[in-house]
UniProtKB/TrEMBL annotation:
Protein name stated in the entry: ABC transporter permease
Organism whose genome encodes this protein: Streptomyces fuscus
Keywords: Membrane, Transmembrane, Transmembrane helix
Positions of transmembrane segments: 33-52, 89-114, 135-161, 181-204, 211-230, 300-323
């Protein structure tokens, strides 16, 4: 074999390697890549603005109104223009991050997997010395790496913005650490949910190898999973109980509350408005609230992250198993 043919063979081998698959992935889905980069850039810009000039302007407006002192007046309960602008940017930025799993699942099910199975380009790739398993691995690995890098960056910026605006959030009391969007985007759970959306989308795309039906099913499935996790979240870690004999305690992140009777039993709060002797008639001697203090943020976050990543792993395993069955065990 001549040196020229050896070089040609080596070049052909490099083209068929993993780098070739990655390059093809980026070329075929460059519109999705550009959209993701734009989304990351816009969200990062909003968070940086809220961290710096937005928060400064809102706090200056609050102080100029005579608030934050012992002589604070009625006007302190009214939002100014600067705070409304700041709060809108915080809400939009957090909302965009919570939409990433849904957008990822819809794209993965339709454009990434479903469309290529529907129009036959996937089978064409499998005849070009690219096994189905390598094809699916590239389809998942490249978006997963980009999602992880982008989401972790935005999560760090969101935490920076949230930590810097603690006094502002406490002053207006319009957002709390346990709000669904704030909780999700202040830690690792946001990235885990995005990866779960990718895994669910890929699995649905293999189950329903048609772009539009796969898009619809993946979107509904992702929304259902997200809703179920929101309901499950308060029960992922033991709560702390606060009791009072005067009035219903009102800490943040309340899971359940009610009234206490003389024997320590818990009962729902009765409607005693304007009814003399109502509390005595119901034998109410105090009140209770089961809640999560701020120190429970990371335990709740890490438990949910583990659950979501485990679910994503199961979905990825199911996708490879299904692809193996569809292709007759080819690897």
């Amino acid at each position: 074999m001549t040196a020229l043919s050896l070089r040609a063979s080596a070049a052909e081998s490099r083209t068929r390697g993993p780098r070739g698959l990655v390059w093809v992935m980026l070329r075929v889905h460059q519109s999705a890549l550009l959209f993701w980069l734009m989304l990351v850039a816009v969200t990062a810009g909003g968070l940086l603005w809220a961290y710096g000039p937005g928060a400064d302007a809102a706090w200056a407006e609050y102080i100029e109104a005579g608030c934050g002192t012992t002589t604070s007046g009625f006007d302190c309960d009214m939002y100014g223009t600067a705070f409304q602008r700041y709060d809108n940017i915080v809400g939009v930025s957090s909302g965009l991050l919570t939409l990433v799993p849904l957008l990822t699942a819809a794209w993965a099910a339709s454009a990434l997997i479903g469309r290529e199975l529907e129009n036959g380009t996937a089978r064409l790739a499998w005849t070009q010395s690219v096994s189905p398993a390598r094809w699916l691995a590239a389809k998942l690995a490249v978006p997963a790496a980009l999602l992880t890098a982008g989401m972790l960056t935005l999560t760090l910026l969101h935490r920076l913005m949230w930590s810097a605006g603690t006094e502002l959030h406490e002053a207006w009391a319009v957002r709390a650490w346990d709000d669904s969007a704030i909780f999700l985007t202040n830690g690792t759970t946001a990235t885990a949910h995005a990866l779960l959306g990718l895994a669910v989308g890929a699995l649905v795309g293999l189950l329903l190898p048609r772009a539009l039906p796969a898009l619809a099913v993946a979107s509904v499935t992702t929304l259902a999973i997200a809703g179920a996790l929101v309901e499950l979240r308060p029960h992922l870690w033991p709560t702390v109980t606060l009791t009072s004999t005067d009035d219903v305690p009102a800490p943040a992140a309340v899971v359940r509350d009610g009234a206490l009777t003389s024997d320590g039993s818990r009962i729902p709060l009765p409607d005693c408005l304007g009814e003399p002797g109502c509390l005595t008639k119901h034998d109410i001697t105090g009140y209770y609230a089961d809640y999560h203090p701020t120190s429970h943020f990371w335990p709740l976050h890490l438990v949910e992250t583990g659950i979501v990543l485990a679910a994503a792993s199961v979905a990825v395993g199911a996708a490879f198993w299904l692809l193996r069955r569809r292709t007759g065990g080819a690897v």
